[in-house]
Amino acid sequence: SPRFFPHRYLFLLGCQETTPPTPGECCFDFYTKRIPVSRIQSFKVSHADCPKKGIILKTVKDVELCVNPADQSIQDLMEKVMWGQKVSSGQE
């Protein structure tokens, strides 16, 4: 099943300081099964520089799943979750 994958780049010593920031957390595949709102601990939006926009859900079992923010069922889930959760932009 698709899960969250940290996407990190290593830079060699001597790189110029003008190197643009790189994505820290990106979604490459989306989890498509239904997720009960009671299983969601928190969520954050993937980094703006990622190739795909995604939402990274963290379950109560500390599992991170990427979901598609364009999916209506995910939008409905996020609306329910936002009433009691802190949202992170992923660009910290």
From TrEMBL:
Pfam families registered for this protein in UniProt: IL8
Domain Chemokine interleukin-8-like: 23-81
Keyword Hydrolase (UniProt): no
Tagged with keyword Cytoplasm: no
GO cellular component, one term: extracellular space
A GO molecular function held by the record: chemokine activity
InterPro entries: Chemokine_b/g/d, Chemokine_CC_CS, Chemokine_IL8-like_dom, Interleukin_8-like_sf
Keywords attached to this entry: Chemotaxis, Cytokine, Disulfide bond, Secreted, Signal
Subcellular location: Secreted
SMART domains named in the record: SCY (SM00199)
GO BP annotation list: immune response
Top-rank taxon: Eukaryota
Family under the similarity heading: Belongs to the intercrine beta (chemokine CC) family.
UniProt function note: Monokine with inflammatory and chemokinetic properties. Binds to CCR1, CCR4 and CCR5. One of the major HIV-suppressive factors produced by CD8+ T-cells. Recombinant MIP-1-alpha induces a dose-dependent inhibition of different strains of HIV-1, HIV-2, and simian immunodeficiency virus (SIV).
Entries under PANTHER family matching the protein: C-C MOTIF CHEMOKINE 3, SMALL INDUCIBLE CYTOKINE A
Assembly description: Self-associates. Also heterodimer of MIP-1-alpha(4-69) and MIP-1-beta(3-69). Interacts with CCR1.
Designated name of the protein: C-C motif chemokine
Source species: Denticeps clupeoides
